[in-house]
Amino acid sequence: MKNVFPLLLLGAALSACGGGSDSSPAAPVTPPVVVTPPVTPVADAVTVASQAVAAAAGLTVIAGANADESVYDVAAEIGDTWRITFDNVKKTFSVKVLSTQFGLVDRSGSYTAVTSGNITTYTGTDLSLAVDARTRLLTGTIKLGNMSSNVSGSGYAATDVAKLAGNYIFLGAMRNASNGGSPFNPKGSLRIAADGSAQLCNGGVFNAQGACTAISPQLAAENASLTLVRDAARGLIIARQGQQDFGIVHVHAGDRGLALFIDRYGRNQENVLRVGTMVAAKQQKIGTEIAGSYACVAPGISAKIVVAGSTATITNNTAGKTHDEAITINKLGLGAQAVDFDGIAVFKDPADVPADYSMFMPVSSSMAVEFSTDRTYMGTCLKN
Q1: Could you give the 3-state DSSP secondary structure of residue 89?
Q2: Which 3 state secondary structure label does DSSP give 325?
Q3: Residue 226's CB: how many other CB atoms inside 10 A?
Q4: 230 pLDDT more than 80
Q5: Which of 222, 251, 282, 383 has the fewest CB atoms lying closer than 10 Å?
């Protein structure tokens, strides 16, 4: 019996080595591969809407001399058209004069840029500009020669006048080029046809028969016939009145629809050169989307406007004063004299005389323009 255990152990060892056994070792188990689906970023609604507007209107991005440049054509409120180019690698800018009523010339310089959310602010010598990446909107202030001007414009160029057809509302500010005298602030409706013909109805709207009719007994409607043509050499849309230029039209692809920044210049019946700007936006009702905080600039004034419900809180940064104003939307005028006018909000300070109020017209989710009846200029407001 002494050899029993050694023999049994030997047999177990042979079996483990395959000797006399038909069993196979278990195959290793491979863990399943876990595939993490890619995270699809949520599309920005303003960007998507703006790009759709640009595509429908056949707009093209203004090309720079190289891939590092971004280019914008702007209407200067003094009555000029300039092309602003940023070199995003060299951190330099250039201002090219495309049309001037004052003999101004090109200039260039360097800039610093700060981005907050969708807005990039460019700062340089005599230059402060903001660009909304979602809509390719540019607005701000530039000094050229001895003249400083508010400017607004777009990184898009229009290639087909027919695709600008539609109904717009507008606000404007004009004056004598020589001395700033005889200020004039038109407001009303603009209708553009597919053939490039246009009707400008100052102080009125177009009725069902297409006639320019006054929107208020206090206003006399004035109609002007224009023709929009493309200047292929400069890549610009020119508005003509009869045989002379009325101005240059810059097209903005706002998420609310097309908007037009018009560099207005031309001589009146007395052969006086008149200059200024007009801003037109596709006509549509406005609502709670105008709520928010806006940084506003006008010649010599910096302000902040906060729209909340039926109240606008106005802070004059220059004077250091704040007050509230009541808001009425989609109306023009006040009280019993107010008439339906989609696309305009009226701000009224109860402490002012009845004739004093301001009109606030959103151009896109980025920007609005504002004009007060007690002033002779328009302000531009960038939404924070």
Answers
A1: coil
A2: strand
A3: 19
A4: yes
A5: 222
